[in-house]
Amino acid sequence: MDANDAFQIHLQKLPPQDEKTFETIYTLGNGHFGIRASNPLQGNSSHFNGQPGMFVNGFYDLTELSYGENYSGYAQNSQTICQLPDPRFIIFEVDGIRSDETPYDVKLVDKNLDMRTGVLMEIFDVKSPTNKQFRLTLQSFASHADKHLFVIKYSVSALNFTGALTVIKQHPYIDQQIKFHTDDMRASQPETMLDRTFIRSKLPIMLISTRKSQLALIIAQQALNDNPMQVNIIDDLPSFSKTFDLTQGMSQSFSFVYAISFPHPLLKTTLTQSSFAAASEKRLADKSFKQLLDESAAKIDQFWENSDVELSGDATLAKGIRFNLFHLYQAAGSDGLTSIPAKGLTGPGYEGHYFWDAEMFMLPYFIYTEPAIARQLLLYRYHTLPQAQHRAREMAVDNGVMFPWRTINGEEASSYYPAGTAQVHINADIAYAVDTYVRVTGDDDFLTDYGYEIIVKTARFWLAYGHWATDDAHQGKFVIDDVTGPDEYTAMVSNNYFTNRMAQNNLSIAVKYSNQLKHSHPEKLVTLNVTDKEIDQFNRAADGMYLPYDHELKIKKQDDLSTSKPVWPIKETPRDQFPLLLHYHPMTIYHYQVNKQADTVMTDFLFPKDQDAAQLKRDFDYYETITVHDSSLSRAIFGILAHRLHHADDAYHYFMQTVMMDLTNSQGNTGDGIHAANMGSTWLSLIYGFAGLGLEKESFNLSPELPEAWDSLRFRIWFHGRQIEITITQSAVTVKLLSGEPLQFYLKHKTFQLTKGRLVNQFLK
Q: Domain named Glycoside hydrolase family 65 N-terminal: which ranges (predicted)?
C-alpha cells in the first residue's frame, strides 16, 4: 500500500451499508459544522432513503419534555441540535423537468475521502424522467483554515445525449426534517421549527433562527470564479442558475462556497446582519476552489504532523485508526463555547448533546496532540459554571456546582433522571480532566484563570451532597448516597465505587491546587472565598471517603448492595435481545447484576496505582463476566486493563472490536452518527494500553507491549511544551525530542534523560 492510499477511505473497500451509514462515514466537518454526505438531489424529499443535513455546533432549539408526573427539578426542555438545509443540495432541469419536482433516478457510483487533504470525492449517475443520463461528480471540503467555510465543486458530463442542462442552486426549504421511524430512544428526532429571512445583499444570504431558544445564524453563498454564475430570483428565492450545452465526453464544472456564521442570540444576529452581509461579500469575493483547498489542506497537514498514529503490520487497521482520529478532529469545538457531541457533527443521534464522553474519552487525545483545542473544550465547561451553579441550587445542593449529564447550553436536558441527572460523577470527571490537562501541558495560566475555579466548585458539591455516616456499616466514613455510576443498568445506589473514588480525587486535587495557589496566587483563593477551614474539610472528606469492598470475593464492590443481587443470565439471553435497554424495562435490569459498560473497573484504568496486579485481575475477571458492553464506551477500557494484565489476546480482541466500529457499522446504528467516544477510546487503547503511557509527577512513563501482529507503532505527544516522538517495535523503544527543553522520563519505571538531537533507544527484551 502506498503512503497516499493509507489516508483514503474508499467506498469500494467498505462492507455494503445503507445510505444513512455511508452519509455518516463520509460526513465533512471542522468542529463548527458538519455536513452529511447525502445524495445531493435529495433535499427535503422523502423519495430517497437518505437523511441529509448540516449540523452547526451549539445551534439548537428547545423541545418541551413531557412527564406524566412532573416533579420539582425535572428538566423542562431538551435541547435538540438543528438539522439545517443541506448545502450540497442542487437542482437540475432537463427537458423542462426539475429534479426537485419530479424525482430523477440517482445511483451512487463511488466515494472516496482523502483524509490528507480533507477532500471528499463522489460520483453519481443520474437519469432524468426523459431518460437523459449524465454523470455528476462532487468534490467538497469543510475548511480548517476558515471554520466558517464549506466549499463544493460540481462537474456534469452527458452520458447518452447532447443538449441543454440547467443548474439551479437554491434552498427552497428550511425545515430539514425527513422522518424516519425507530424504536431506539438514542436516535430520537424531536421536531424543531426554524424561520428564515433573506438579507438584502449581492449574494444569497439567509438568516436562520429558532423559535424557542431564540438563536440565529447567517449563511451566505457565493459562486466561485472558476465558472461564475449570476444571482437570479427563481420561485421568489435568490438563486444561482446557468444552462450548459453538454456534449458527450466533455464535462462542465462549477463551484460554490458557503460562509456559515457562529450561532448568536437572535437579537444580536439581527442587529449585525448588515455588517455580516458586507463582510461575507468581501470574504468570498475572488476566491477559487484551489486557493481555499490549499489553505485548508495546510491546516490538516499540521494536524497529522501532531496527531498521526503510524501502525505498521496491518494496513486496514492503520487506516481505521486514522479514520477515527480524523473524525475526532472534525468534531471538536474550538471556540470555548462548544464541546464535542456524542455523535460528533455527523447525525442527529442523542440530539447533539455533550456528555461525560467529551472529558473522559475524547479529551485525552486532544490534551496530548492538540492542547490548544483541549483548552477550548475545557473552557466550554468553565463558561457554563453559572448554569451548573443554578442547577445545584435547583436540586437543593447549597454549595458548589452540579454539571448537567446531557446538555448543549449548559442546562440539564436529561428527562430520565435515574440514568441522567443522578450521574453526578460528571462533576468529578470534569475536574479529573482539568487536572490531567494541567499535568500534561503545564498550563498554569489556565489553572489560575479557569481550571482552579472548576475544581473548587465541583469539590464543594461533594461536601454538600455527601455526608459523614453514623450507621454501623459506614461509621465515621464520608458516603455519597442515591447516585448512578457509569453503568446505567444499575441506578440510584449508595456509594457507587466509581463515583466515590472520583469524588475523592476531586477533593484531593482541590487541596493540592489550593495549597499551590496559596503561595503563587493567594488572591485567587480570596476571590473564590477558599479558606483554610474549607481546605481542611476537602482533605478530611477525601481521606474519609468510603470505598466499598467485598472482603469475601476480594473485589471492589460497585456499590453497597451490588454483589448481593442475582446475576443476569447473559449466556441464555438471545442475541437479538441486546442491547438490553431496548428490550427490558429498567426495573427488570436494575434487579440484576449486569453492567452496560465498564464502571468500577474504570477506576482501575484511571488510577492504576490504586491496586496491585492481583487486585486488578480479581476486579477484571469478576466484572468482565457481568458486562454486556451495550455501550460503545466499554470495550476499550477492558482492553486496556487486559493489556496491563498481559492478556495479549484479550487486549487485542477488545481493541479490534472498537477501532472499526463505524467503518463496519458493527453496532448497527452508525447511520445516526459516529460513536465519537469510541473513537477517542481507540487512541486511549493505543497510547494508554499498548504503549503503556502513564503520568508520573512532572513526567511520564512508558511500559509498551505490542500485539504480535504489529511491526511498529509511532506517535507524537506534547508534554509541557515539548513535542516528543515515540517509536515502539517488537524489540525496542525509541524516544526523540522534536522541540522544547530537555526532559527526564521513565521507561518501565527506569529513568532516562531526553535531550534534543539525541535519541533514547532501548531494547525491550
A: 13-233
d(CA 763, CA 729): 9
Catalytic residue among 23, 93, 488, 534: 488
Rounded to whole angstroms, what are the CA distances from 602 to 46, 376, 490, 619, 641? 44, 25, 15, 10, 9
Strands of 450-573, DSSP E: 467-468, 478-479, 549-550, 555-556
C-alpha cell at 489: 443498568
> 3-class DSSP state for residue 701?
strand
pLDDT digits (tens, 9 = 90+) for 94-106: 999 999 999 999 9
Question: Does the annotation flag 357 for ligand binding?
Answer: yes
Q: Which of 275, 295, 329 lies at the terminal end of a domain, its last residue?
A: 275
At residue 215, what are phi and psi to the nearest 5 degrees? -105, 160
Q: Say how far apart CA 325 and CA 319 lie, in whole Å.
A: 10
Q: Would the annotation count 710 as a binding residue? A: no
Cβ-count burial 161-196 (b if 16+ within 10 Å, e if not): beeebebbbbbbbbbbbbeeeeeeebbebeebebee
SS3 572: coil
658: cell is 472498537
Q: In one letter, which amino acid is 278?
A: A
Last residue of a domain, one of 221, 253, 275: 275
Per-residue model confidence as pLDDT tens digits over 309-329:
999 999 999 999 999 999 999
Residue 1: pLDDT band by 50, 70, 90 thresholds?
very low
Q: Scanning the structure block, which residue is given the C-alpha cell 448481593?
A: 564
Is 356 labelled a binding residue?
A: yes
The greatest distance separating any two alpha carbons of the chain, rounded to the nearest whole angstrom, comes to 90
Same domain, 239 and 314: no
In eight-state DSSP terms, residue 104 is P
**123 φ/ψ angles, rounded to the nearest 5 degrees:** -130, 130
Residues 502 and 641 in one domain: yes
Same domain, yes or no: 315 and 266: no
Measure the CA–CA gap between 250 and 752, rounded to whole angstroms: 63
The answer to whether residues 132 and 236 belong to one domain is yes
The helix-helix angle for 648-659 and 315-331 (nearest 10°) equals 50
Q: What are phi and psi of 401, to 5 degrees?
A: -125, 160
Count of domains for the chain = 2
- Is the model's pLDDT at 177 over the cut of 70? no
Is residue 176 in a domain?
A: yes
Domain range for 487: 307-689
Instruction: Looking at the structure, tell me whether residues 494 and 628 fall in a common domain.
Output: yes
8 A C-beta contact, residue 517 and residue 452: yes
78 in helix, strand or coil?
Answer: strand
Is 107 a known ligand-binding residue? Answer: no
Cis peptide before 418 (omega within 30 of 0): no
Please give the Cα distance from 661 to 140 (Å, whole number): 25
Does 589 share its domain with 682? yes
Strand ranges (E), 631-691: none
Say whether 488 is catalytic.
Answer: yes
- Return phi, psi of residue 699, to 5°: -160, -165
Number of C-beta neighbours around residue 27 at 10 A: 27
How many residues are recorded in the chain? Answer: 765
Contacts of 635 (CB under 8 A, 6+ apart): 629, 654, 657, 658, 681
Identify whether residues 109 and 253 lie together within a single domain. Answer: yes
Residue 399 is given by DSSP the state S
User: Is 426 strand, coil or helix?
Assistant: helix
Rounded CA separation 293/677 (Å): 29
209 has pLDDT over 80: yes
Q: Is residue 701 part of a domain?
A: no
Q: Residue 737: inside a domain, yes or no?
A: no
Q: Would you say residue 613 lies in a domain?
A: yes
pLDDT at 283 over 90: no
- 400 and 547 housed in the same domain: yes
- CATH code of the domain in which 122 resides: 2.70.98.40
| DSSP output for 221-242 | EEE-TTS--EEEEETTEEEEEE
